[in-house]
């Protein structure tokens, strides 16, 4: 019997002899003619009257009916066999006997190599004859009753004892609690299987079988097959050794620095305890961390804009004259410098926004109607890579008239010092990139650009203000020129001027 060994903690490594011989099975067909030869075995007439019945065999198929009480030389083998199995049926109480001889005839008791007898029950019964050596050549059948008939079906024979069990497929080293799964095979089909783990009593098991609940460490599985005739190889079962790894350690507890029971990875305010995760303006920043008024309110003309962080880091500095009555104003009024903006917020016009390392979307009023008025309109811009101040007139001549939102460029700390002395041509001090839908103006050092639904950038250099347009058009107002300058898509225009040279030592604008 082959034995399969699973290399510990490694992939499966098998060492097994050549496959054992599968038994040959003679199955009958309706109107079977004799003699019948299958493999090394031949069923002959002998002194019996042979006939086949179309259905009702042990597997409900055709079977062979013998009408004589003695059938010598019923089955002959071209080569010696080790085991012969078959199903038999006779009237209840009748003794069915069979003998196997080592020669081509059974003339006397000395010729008999294997003999067995059973009491018939009226139903199909398995019948097995085996010899210690390959010595079986002729099968003879007898009945204790001289009258009546008996039936045979699915005659199986082999030159080796069968069934022979193997474990051709097995899992590698397994980790608890995942079950170890093994697949079995038998040289006899059909077969059932009996399993034993670590020497426990054998129990019937499925194929494939999954074994769970084992302690970490080495284990052994033994398996033997039981064929349709009830024959087993319990004396030499197939075996496999396997290892169950210790369970993986539990993952470390999720960080929760504010101790509110919500892990930092999903906490919308990881620095302030807020187990309710309330987020009134749905900007993914919890109310407990909102340092600016919420951004779920519409912009008020001339008073507020709504700023939403799209990417990167963004900071806001409120005007020094922010009124105490500004809606939901808390810490921003008490802190004089820049504060980080998270999510979105409503900020007063006149505030400074730093997007040098980020990008924002700005919603502002597009006419002078109050935000609650159904005639109120909005305009929107995406702004990045800039420090600027937001401004807007409180009211136009007519409420329905479009009012512009001004984006006034401011210099990052120390940037203007680049223009002292003789800076290289084109030295950049500050810039802004914008995508606008509505009326926006960028206020640079040498020109003011007005755009409606355009994509453009404004750059203040030491030698002037450069406007570059990607889409739409930008109209430039220059103090020294009465006629505006129109810069169209794909064009650029530099308004030359000596900027920032006299501002050496100017204090940084970020507090």
Count of helix runs: 1
Query: How far is the N terminus from the C terminus?
Result: 86 Å
- Outline the biggest β-sheet: 6 strands, antiparallel
Q: Which outline best applies?
A: rod-shaped
Strand content: 35-45%
Q: Taking Cα atoms only, what radius of gyration do you get, to the nearest Å? A: 48 Å
Helix content, binned percent: under 10%
- Rounded average pLDDT: 84
Low-confidence residue ranges: 1-19, 324-335, 504-511
Give a count of the beta strands, DSSP E runs of length 2 or more.
33
The structural class is: mainly beta
The figure for the number of domains is: 4
Protein name: Thrombospondin type 3 repeat-containing protein
Organism: Solirubrobacter deserti
Signal peptide: 1-18
Keywords: Signal
Describe it.
1% of the residues lie in helices and 44% in strands. It is mainly beta and 511 residues long. It folds into 4 domains: 24-158, Jelly Rolls (Sandwich); 165-245, Immunoglobulins (Immunoglobulin-like), CATH 2.60.40; 251-282, no CATH class; 287-496, no CATH class. It starts with 23 loop residues before the first strand and ends in a 15-residue tail after the last strand. The relative contact order is 0.08. The protein is rod-shaped and about 135 Å long. It has one helix at 331-334, and strands spanning 24-26, 36-38, 41-43, 50-53, 63-66, 70-81, 83-89, 95-101, 112-119, 125-130, 136-143, 150-158, 165-170, 174-175, 180-186, 191-197, 203-205, 209-211, 217-227, 238-245, 304-317, 339-340, 344-348, 352-365, 378-384, 387-392, 405-409, 428-443, 448-461, 464-471, 473-477, 485-488, 492-496. A hairpin with a 2-residue loop joins strand 29 (448-461) and strand 30 (464-471). InterPro entries: TSP_type-3_rpt (IPR028974). This is Thrombospondin type 3 repeat-containing protein. Residues 1-18 form the signal peptide.
